[in-house]
Design a protein that fits this description.
It is built from 12 helices and 10 strands. It is α/β, with parallel strands linked by helices. It has 2 domains: 195 residues, Rossmann fold, CATH 3.40.50.1100; 107 residues, Rossmann fold. Bound molecules: pyridoxal-5'-phosphate (PLP). The site of pyridoxal-5'-phosphate has 20 residues, from α2, β7 and α8.
């Protein structure tokens, strides 16, 4: 099973704010690995697709919203690797299809819409049994690739990084990516997660569970313990996929200054948060004072495909 992926480059970014604060900031560009199959979504898919191949499945079924980066990546990776794909989409069909879903269809994905209430059952064996009855022997990957195979792939995100760093910063939805990254750090390194959902504190329990389950699973782990991690919950901008003018101008300015595009849903909120904390001289609370953790690696988790749809939404308003 192979895709031609470019190893993600690390790019240092400079600003007066950083040098005044004595921090070094680099960006790991997972967005550049492949035109379609990139970002953390590829890492979360990798071992799920390998497991499907190993068990001789020919069809992948997965779940997502209408703008989902995971649906987009699964459609493309499935097509490139010779799987049929079925995307179970939350809510009703809207025509014309948005850019995310039309891309998925172009890649050969079959779309199936289920109402929001049924969608809530997406993790249950009952719904999975229904779907298998409808679509036959399908290999089911959870929404977002959020399972232990997903964590496993994310333990490899840093494997090609040669730059030295003390702290990694990453945007969190389910925090599967944060969990994998944290398992691959040295004990002296730290990870800081920036939840993009409101009241992101609930993720603490999820992260603890994922780490415990992973370490008990017997799956390969780079180390037998997880490095310290912390969440910064103040940069959700009102909740999932919510933006305001401040965030939009930040994206424009950041992209102009550094030539690095950001997505509205995930990476922009983390980058904004990191830069704001550096400006305030307080990066991540007492345990992780930036003064002792001065080399930061910001993980660009991709997601840029979603910007096409965001632009449409804004224009529509
Ligand atoms: C899905 C996604 C995330 C969140 O990943 P989790 O593992 O669910 O925390 C972050 N950034 C981008 C661009 C994503 O698409």
């Amino acid at each position: 099973m192979s895709l031609s992926l470019i190893p993600p480059p690390t790019q240092q970014i400079n600003s007066e704010i950083f040098s005044r604060a004595g921090v070094e900031v680099s960006v790991l560009r997972l967005d550049l690995m492949h035109p379609w199959v990139n970002g953390n979504k590829w890492f979360k898919l990798k071992y799920n697709l390998l497991a499907a191949k190993e068990d001789n499945y020919t069809t992948i079924l997965t779940f997502g919203g209408a703008y989902s980066n995971h649906i987009y990546a699964t459609a493309a990776a499935g097509n490139l690797l010779g799987f049929r794909t079925i995307g179970v989409i939350r809510g009703e069909e809207r025509l014309p299809l948005n850019p995310t879903l039309s891309f998925a269809v172009e890649q050969g994905m079959q779309l199936v819409y289920i109402d929001r209430e049924t969608y809530r059952q997406r993790h249950t064996p009952e719904l999975h049994a229904d779907l298998r009855q409808r679509f036959g022997e399908v290999f089911i990957i959870p929404e977002g690739g959020c399972n232990l195979n997903g964590v496993r792939g994310c333990t490899e995100i840093l494997s090609e990084v040669t730059a030295e760093f003390d702290t990694i910063c990453v945007a969190c939805g389910t925090a599967t990516t944060l969990a994998g990254l944290t398992l691959s750090l040295q004990p002296k390194q730290r990870s800081l997660g920036f939840p993009v959902l409101k009241n992101g504190d609930f993720l603490k329990q999820d992260i603890t569970n994922l780490l415990t389950q992973y370490l008990a699973s017997g799956l390969p782990a780079p180390s037998s313990t997880a490095a310290p991690w912390e969440l910064v919950c103040d940069y959700h901008f009102g909740g999932y996929a919510k933006v305001n003018d401040q965030l939009v101008s930040f994206i424009d300015e950041f992209t102009q200054s550094y030539g690095i595009p950001l997505d509205y849903v995930y990476t922009a909120k983390m980058f904004y948060g990191v830069i704001d904390l550096i400006r305030k001289g307080d990066l991540g609370g007492d345990q992780l004072r930036w003064a002792e953790r001065h080399r930061l690696l910001l993980i660009h988790t991709g997601g840029l495909q979603g910007n096409l749809s965001m632009k449409n939404i804004k224009r529509a308003n």
